[in-house]
Amino acid sequence: MSASKNRKEPFWLGGAAACMAVCFTHPLDQTKYRMQVLKSSNSMLSTLYRFGLRDGIPSLWAGLSASILRQGTYSTARFGLHTYLSAQVLQRSGRDKLPVSWNIACAGVSGGIAGLIGNPTEVVLVRMCADGAKAAGDRFRYSNALVGLWRVWKEEGTRAFSRGIGPNVTRSVLMNVSQIASYASAKQYLLASGNMSDNITTHAIASLVAGTVATTLCAPADVLKSRMQSSAGRDSLLQVVRDSLRDEGPRFLMKGWTPAWLRLTPHTVLTFVFMEQLRKLSQLSLSNRQVETARL
User: Where are the Solcar repeats (predicted)?
Assistant: First the structure.
């Protein structure tokens, strides 16, 4: 991708694609958080079925406002900053293609910054999703994401927004590097094979690979992040690790991998497919404006 193309790509593009994707995948996201917070051996399908049967199918979309707000901040930042940083590297180096090492570096930096930006909404998201798995007296009962942000600030102070920030930033760096780098590599391999063209099928296969890689690398940090944010500050990172190792053994670090994969992989596929289509629409709109300007 050339520098000029990178500069022309809207900053909001990745965030918009992620917001669209999460509307479809939120029930799986919710189940993942509940499994990470609960110390049980129930399967993903069992957990999803149990809560859906108990509270009704619409309850599986509880907390959707927090998911959309999180993607609107976190994903906008991680994709937008990666595009911006990549464009700057290409412009300064004079190259037509970003080397793999620089692509990983840009993805890591943008992922870390996005993790910091998105942590407050992540705290609210985890709590809203985990509420249905808790006893009635332990629930936060945020009616929507904005109310959740207000109540966290009012009841616990601004420091609560940094809850789990270490694991979250670590996960964000791993997520961005694994998703973007593996998607780009898989897409490049598929196109170079000569059997596939730059279409939705190629985008879906490449993003399937990216989702699997990202799920596996991010699982440990994701579990620790969810448990710390759900505890409302009662447990430190060291205490969470110690108690979890004692009660569940090292395998707790992969707790919820199946729902995480089933959630993240479709989310990754939808995000990159939507992003590619939005990119084409954006470039088409830009070309039309340039033609109109030339006519004038």
Answer: 9-88, 102-189, 198-281
Q: Mean pLDDT in the chain? A: 87
User: From the centroid of its chain, how far is CA 31?
Assistant: 15
Question: From residue 128, how far is each of 18, 62, 146, 161, 248 by CA, in Å?
Answer: 19, 7, 12, 14, 25
CA distance 22 to 11: 19
Q: Do 129 and 34 contact (CB within 8 A), yes or no?
A: yes
- The rounded distance, in Å, linking the Cα atoms of 179 and 274 is 15
pLDDT digits (tens, 9 = 90+) for 236-257: 778 888 888 888 888 888 877 8
| Confidence (pTM) | 0.80
Q: Which fold has domain 12-282?
A: Mitochondrial carrier fold (1.50.40)
Of 98, 119, 100, 104, which Cα lies nearest the Cα of 228? 119
Query: Measuring CA to CA, which residue among 58, 63, 79, 75 is closest to residue 19?
Result: 75
Tokens of 4: 């000029």
pLDDT on residue 234? 67
| Contact yes or no for 255/36 (Cβ under 8 A) | yes
Helices (H), 131-181: 145-156, 165-176
Q: Give the whole-angstrom CA distance, residue 275 versus residue 68.
A: 16
Across 44-53, b (16+ Cβ under 10 Å) vs e yields beebbeebee
Return the domain boundaries, the chain. Answer: 12-282
Residue range 7-64, pLDDT digits in tens: 468 999 999 999 999 999 999 888 878 887 776 667 778 888 889 999 999 999 999 9
Which H or E run contains 26? helix 13-37
